[in-house]
Amino acid sequence: MTEPVIPTGGDKEQNTAQQPKSHKRDRHPATAINNIRRVANSQRLSRESTCSNQPGNATVEDSVVIQPPTLTTVEQQEVITLLSRREIEKMRQAGRLAAQLLDYLEPMIKPGVTTLEINDAAEAWTQQHGAKSAPLGYPGAVDPFPKSLCTSVNEVVCHGIPNADQVLRDGDIINVDVTPIVDGYHGDTSRTFLVGTPSPLAKKLVEVTEECMWRGIQVVKPGARIGDIGAAIQEYAEAEGFSVVRDFVGHGVHRIFHTAPQIPHYGTAGKGKKFRKGMVFTIEPMINVGTYEVEVLADGWTALTADRKLSAQFEHTIAVTETGVEVLTQA
């Protein structure tokens, strides 16, 4: 599940301090843009907690947060947590279940099926496996998200809401975005599926979008920078004649659903924060046939391409390792 772009203090490097993990409850704001963004930002600043200011030495059982010594309200959104080995193993478990859930749903994605049927099957499967659906009841600028996953069909960029009246048709494309919570940790992943026989354009869009995700993942390693991801994705997508959505980005994820760092899917190589071992975040490019601009419906969730042309998305949650990257959301 994507998050909107939240304005930050920029990409300049800051001195950091290592402190133990906060034990405050996980909170996060609405996920909407444009005229809703100001509301979302204020909710984020009021809800999202930062780390405890107690000194101490982190162990392999503790996460480590990277932050400037004094935080402004904007900088609070930039606190990055480095996960311990134990926590990354928890993320593997959540990620594996998320991938298995998409594998389970794939056979039912065909003409004649409603998006609500996909949602209900996912919720039942998730409960059977002792997990919870993070999107269900997730706070929004208008209303909480009402379903257990996102189903974004054709021109819907992200956060499509499953409903009984939306019947999949031959030639559709649909992104299914799931996030089960396992033992407090979020496994966030999505895939775009072809329904029946797609048009050549739809098929190319889906293939290019998946390749964009993998190109973004491949540049991640300690010392590389956030801008390297966006540059790799944007270069390939635009070379293939498509555009990259700007208004929604990847995000840090662990016990908190959406947190720092923000991961734009466009940008300039060599810019942005450096990756460090233990960082965990999503890479989830949204690639459009036409303009990269989007609109959000009155429900505060459903984001559409401004020109109503097709959009596709793929997402993995990844961890920065000592030498490179590990994809956590694989079965």
Features:
single chain; alpha+beta; Creatine Amidinohydrolase; three-stranded antiparallel β-sheet
Domain tally: 1
Basic shape: globular
Q: Treating each run of at least 4 consecutive H or I residues as one helix, how many helices? A: 5
> SSE order in H/E notation?
EEHEEHHEEEEEEEHHEEEEEEEEEE
Give the amount of beta strand, in percent: 15-25%
Supply the CATH superfamily name.
Answer: Creatinase/methionine aminopeptidase superfamily
How much helical structure, as a percent, in the residues?
A: 10-25%
What profile does the largest beta sheet have? 3 strands, antiparallel
Q: Give the overall pLDDT as a whole number.
A: 84
CATH architecture: Alpha-Beta Complex
Task: Report the CATH topology name.
Answer: Creatine Amidinohydrolase
Distance between the termini: 19 Å
Describe the structure.
There is one protein chain. The chain has 331 residues and is α+β, with helices and mostly antiparallel strands. It has helices at 37-47, 85-105, 115-128, 200-218, 226-239; strands at 3-4, 17-20, 64-67, 80-82, 132-133, 150-153, 156-158, 173-178, 180-182, 185-186, 189-194, 243-244, 248-252, 259-263, 280-283, 286-288, 294-296, 303-305, 311-313, 316-320, 325-327. It has a single domain (15-327), classed as Alpha-Beta Complex (Creatine Amidinohydrolase), CATH 3.90.230. It contains five helices and 21 strands. The strands form seven sheets. The protein has a three-stranded antiparallel beta sheet with strand order 1-13-14. A three-stranded antiparallel beta sheet has the order 2-3-4, with no helix packed on it. A hairpin with a 2-residue loop joins strand 9 (180-182) and strand 10. The longest helix has 21 residues, at 85-105. 51% of the residues are buried.
